[in-house]
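Before surveying the methods themselves, let us examine one representative protein, written as a sequence plus integers encoding its fold.
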Amino acid sequence: MTDLSFEATSRFLETANGRLHYHEAGSGPALLLLHGSGPGVTGWANFAGNLPLFARHFRTIILDAPGYGRSDPIDGDPVAVARDAAVALMDGLRIDRAHVIGNSYGGIVGGHLAASHPDRVLRYITIGGIGFNITSTFPNEGLTRLVDFIENPTRENIVAWLESMVFDKSIITDELIEMRYKAALEPVTMTSSRKMYTRSALEFIAQSMSGPAVSQRIDYLGRIQAPTLITWGRDDKVSPLDGALLPMRVIPNAELHVFPRCGHWAMIECKERFETLALGFLLGEN
């Protein structure tokens, strides 16, 4: 039986901009998994549970974005930095084209990767992330709880944030809390989080959601040529469902699937349904 543990799949790649950490298992067409952001997040934390299925069909690669997990931090815009790291990883592993799945921040990164390097992305799946609030308020509960933790990193605040990520709070076990809390307090990880999640950062994002700045936030969507599956939790408190409407309409070849009774982590909270849907899409069955 193939060993799909953390250590057995752990790999490093030296690049011109520092060392990237990733996990790799399986064979076949390449599938790149891009994690979200937030306290203590890593590629493994987001996608370890999905690796066994995907590795049966694909050369599955789970990347730690720069400044997360065991990857070295890189200065610059977090989305552009992570996109360029994904390209560097593909180049270093001699992968010409790959399917891409991204959760939240990773979904945005994947969208920018597909838009700027259309020849490198076969099919693209986003789990929330790429949307734009149309009817819901900003910031919403999930982002507010996240900033609360970043500015005051207590165990109580990370529990409040984790519970805002899901519909079923029973998923938030003591083991998960301790794992994410310990990882979140690691200095490099905290620095990465503070680049994105402060009151001032959210104010800047809010300002960019109106007026001429809007076009700069969404123009990449129309350049995504890969067949695209937009997945969303109906009860997402981080990226509300109305955020799916604009990318669904603007991305040329996009379809939308909404999971009921599901929050921001569809690949975890609706694991079997998400995997079945994603596998069918990636294999060209949907």
